[in-house]
Structures are given as structure tokens and as C-alpha cells.
């Protein structure tokens, strides 16, 4: 469909076909953490770094996104888990609302591996049908963390493959899922999934160097890209970090080069812009 191709090109505009997404959809899911408590300032700093797209809920999009229209693609989040329902995403918006808001894609959370998996994948299937009908690219944040998957098992290759492949089976265009911990293991996920696969940023990284190294490894594994949130919007210099990660994803610079570039941005002008 032409409409879908046009929107996909806005979502992933570069000739390299790589994707760098950011998210600010955490407040319902995890609480109003630092970086989300001043959302206008955070959005300004994030988008100044030049990501491909940013994911948010409809209320934040309506109130905060207008200054950035045409500068970055908007992905509207249609579902959320929550502080009090951590193991289940529920639908809170639909594709028609995304069209009215001018979104370039919609995003659906889905948690597999639990007693409620049938409801989760049924919801994803319904939204996939609507997205296809309207020519809207579909992103899914799909994780193997239901009540039958304990602790670190949510990062096991076989569980991540299962989650990502389920999304591909249901027609998802860009799949965001857990990182498995190494380029070698994540390459198995990429090989098993006939769709674009990106990683979430929630892996246990504690420094910019670890995040940059993870990004380099996942790109080397053949991933389509990354979608990051918490670490980025809580970082001391958001714009500098976004610019640096963008170069790793789109230009293929090394970890050493990226760290040098980040240091230069942070120290040369203070705000990285």
C-alpha cells in the first residue's frame, strides 16, 4: 500500500535502512521518573540529537509534539502495561486516533510467556488488522516476561526468538524486543525472524560506554536498530548521547570513536548541541 510505504519511509528515512527510535511512554508503565517530569525540556533535548522517531502516548503527542512535526517521525503508543498491571498490556488508543494525530506508525506492547498470552496476542492481531487496513506501519514492543518465564530467562535466546517470531507471524513491521546479551546470540534472533528487529534499552547497562557497546554489538548482529528510553532521557547530556548513538547506528563508528565523540560533545559546548 502506498500510504504504508510513505509512512515507513518517514519512519526509516535513510538509505541504510537502519532505525534509531526513542521512547517517552513510560509514565503509566513505570511511574513519572526523572526526565519525564519535565517532558517539554526532555523532548527538545532528545529531538535535537536527531533520532528517526519518538514514541509517546496520545495526550503527550497532542500537547507536546507539534513543534517537532516534520523533524522526527511520531510513533503513537496504543497500549501500555502499568505499575499495577505489569504483566499485561491493555489498549488505550487505536489506529484512527493515530491517523488524526498525524502519526507515522503505531506501537503495541505485548507480553508473552504468561497465562494471559492468548489475550495479549489476540489484541496484537486485532490491531495489526486495523493497521494494515489504514496503511499504518506497526511496531511491537514484545517481551517474553510472563509468569511462566522467570528472571533472566526473559533474555534467553529461545525465549526472545519466540516473542519476536510471534510478532512477525502477526504482521508486525518493526519488532522491539529484549537484547540477549551478545552479538552472536542476537544474530540468531535476527536470522529466525523475517521482519525488522530492534532491541529495547532495558538491558542491564549502567554507563554510556556499556550502552554504546551494546548498540555496536546489536548492529553488528544484523539488527534493524534500537529503541531506547530510560537511560537516554535520564542521561546528563541527552542531546550528546543521542547524537553519538545515531552515529553508531547510521555511520557504523566504533565504540572507541563513539566514546571520543561523546566526550567531545559533552566538553566542547556543554549541552552537546
Query: Quick check: average pLDDT?
Result: 96
What name is given to the CATH topology? TIM Barrel
Strand order of the largest sheet: 1-2-3-6-7-8-9-10
Unreliable residue stretches: none
Task: Report what the structure shows.
This protein has one domain: Aldolase class I (TIM Barrel), CATH 3.20.20.70. It is α/β, with parallel strands linked by helices and 273 residues long. 48% of the residues are buried. The model has no long low-confidence stretch (mean pLDDT 96). 45% of the residues lie in helices and 19% in strands. The strands form 2 sheets. The chain has an 8-stranded parallel β-barrel with strand order 1-2-3-6-7-8-9-10, surrounded by 6 helices.
Give a quick set of tags describing it:
alpha/beta; 273 residues; 19% strand; TIM Barrel
Secondary structure: elements and pairs:
Blueprint: H1 2-11, E1 19-23, H2 27-30, H3 39-48, E2 53-56, H4 58-64, E3 73-77, E4 79-82, E5 85-91, H5 95-100, E6 105-112, H6 117-134, E7 138-144, H7 157-169, E8 174-177, H8 183-192, E9 196-200, H9 208-220, E10 225-228, H10 230-233, H11 238-251, H12 255-268
Parallel strand pairs: 1-2, 1-10, 2-3, 3-6, 6-7, 7-8, 8-9, 9-10
Antiparallel strand pairs: 4-5
Helix pairs in contact: 3-11, 7-8, 9-11, 11-12
How do you describe this structure in short?
The longest helix is centred in the middle third of the chain and has 18 residues, at 117-134.
Amino acid at each position: 500500500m502506498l500510504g504504508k510505504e510513505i509512512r515507513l519511509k518517514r519512519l526509516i528515512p535513510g538509505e541504510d535502512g537502519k532505525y534509531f527510535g526513542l521512547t517517552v511512554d513510560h509514565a503509566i508503565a513505570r511511574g513519572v521518573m526523572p526526565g519525564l517530569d519535565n517532558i517539554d525540556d526532555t523532548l527538545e533535548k532528545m529531538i535535537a540529537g536527531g533520532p528517526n522517531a519518538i514514541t509517546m502516548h496520545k495526550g503527550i503527542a497532542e500537547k507536546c509534539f507539534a513543534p517537532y512535526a516534520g523533524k522526527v517521525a511520531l510513533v503513537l503508543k496504543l497500549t501500555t502495561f502499568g505499575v499495577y498491571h505489569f504483566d499485561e498490556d491493555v489498549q488505550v488508543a487505536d489506529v484512527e486516533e493515530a491517523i488524526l494525530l498525524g502519526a507515522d506508525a503505531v506501537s503495541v506492547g505485548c507480553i508473552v510467556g504468561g497465562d494471559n498470552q492468548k489475550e495479549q496476542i489476540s489484541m496484537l492481531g486485532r490491531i495489526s488488522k486495523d493497521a494494515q487496513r489504514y496503511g499504518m506501519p506497526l511496531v511491537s514492543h514484545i517481551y517474553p516476561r510472563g509468569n511462566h518465564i522467570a528472571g533472566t530467562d526473559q533474555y534467553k535466546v529461545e525465549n526472545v526468538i519466540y516473542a519476536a517470531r510471534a510478532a512477525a507471524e502477526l504482521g508486525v513491521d518493526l519488532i522491539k524486543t529484549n537484547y540477549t546479551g551478545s552479538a552472536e546470540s542476537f544474530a540468531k534472533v535476527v536470522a529466525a525472524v523475517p521482519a525488522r528487529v530492534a532491541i529495547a534499552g532495558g538491558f542491564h547497562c549502567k554507563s554510556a560506554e556499556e550502552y554504546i557497546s551494546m548498540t555496536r554489538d546489536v548492529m553488528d548482529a544484523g539488527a534493524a536498530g534500537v529503541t531506547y528510553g530510560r537511560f537516554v532521557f535520564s542521561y546528563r547530556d541527552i542531546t550528546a548521547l543521542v547524537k553519538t548513538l545515531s552515529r553508531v547506528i547510521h555511520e557504523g563508528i566504533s565504540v572507541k570513536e563513539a566514546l571520543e565523540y561523546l566526550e567531545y560533545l559533552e566538553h566542547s559546548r556543554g549541552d552537546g548541541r
